[in-house]
Input
Amino acid sequence: MYEVVSFPRYERYKDSGVEWLGQIPEHWETLRTKNIFRLITEAAPKNNDEELLSVYSDIGVKPRRELEERGNKASTTDGYWIVKKGDVIVNKLLAWMGAIGISDYDGVTSPAYDVLRAYKPIDSKYYHYLFRSPICLSKLKQHSRGIMEMRLRLYFDEFGRIRLPYPPFEIQKRIVEFLDRKCGEIEDAIAHKKRLIELLEEQKTILINQAVTKGLDPNAPMKDSGIEWIGEIPTHWEVKKLKRISPCITVGIVITPSKYYVEEGVICLRSLNIKPNKILVKDSVYISERSNKYLSKSKIFAGDIVCVRTGQPGVSAVVDRRFDGANCIDLIIIRKPKNDLPKFVSLAMNSEVCRSQYLTGASGAIQQHFNIEMAQNLVIAIPPLPEQIKIYNHISKIQKNTMDLMNFIKREIDLMNELKQILIAEAVTGKIKI
Output
């Protein structure tokens, strides 16, 4: 965990006269935004080749070419606002959510944004930290106009009235150097924690794959499965196609399913609801009792396995009692196995060994869809039922222990992010001495 250090305060403070700032160091000033920055409306010339810049809540100002998947590329930037390195770009609609920041680039930005340029001595990064801090964002929201929250806009006539701290230039530089260093340390610690989560996920996947293809006994005698991608299996296991495991494999509603939707009724699962070995209620849709009766072939029952056809082909989960008698849209339905544990079959179907089958198929080409024929011919290594139960319980324990540890690490990451925000707010408002 990142070590929390107590920092000293300045020797003397005074009332800033600004409610959201409270007391500030005696030698600091407060100035209105318009007394530090001016609004720039310098239009780019025709046929310019300037860098197109955008501002994002999570990462600040970046060239659009680096992040083109975040939005449509502009066909022309003629008439866009000129941006100089050190300018502040303000997304008027999303400024209160953090879409405001200092540009490290020369370029152009959309006329939908405001460009602010300092005409007093400042360290631009100091105001970058200030503007994106939660305490300042709350003030920006207060000065934004609109009839509803998601329509709020921050215009410069209101932004310009906000009083900001204005420390001596040398103090601004010191604060920036301090925050760059400390925030960098925290980000490094967070990156380490995120990598640990990735490693835990990889370890869990390896352990699950090992259990569903090789069993739990490392000393068990092995035999060649006869299937290249499965390899060796314990001698007492069988290799079966899914059509020998399930009495019926079919598919959910596929023809204009939306015409059956109602506000309330019988839950109808879609691919959005299906995660590996888990079904989520969120993003469900509903059909009427009458439609559910009419669409009886796509009804699902406890013990059935539902499988995604497109997007994440092959991802499957067992239908539990919550969805007994429900319906589904465009999902492969594998009826409850006769002699095998559905949860073991689903675990096997979500293993890397099975995924390699339905992602590439017999031809070796990447498959975009998982269809009934592919499902019927999917090959799984099957142990006796008592061993299936043991393996399932073992894997459940691995999953729980891994999830508990990952949740603990995620809470640590949340605390580190909170610490970083507190540190920034305390430094830029003069509550700690730098």
User: Anything to note?
Assistant: The mean pLDDT is 90. DSSP finds ten helices and 27 strands in the chain. Residues 347 and 397 are 14 Å apart (CA to CA).
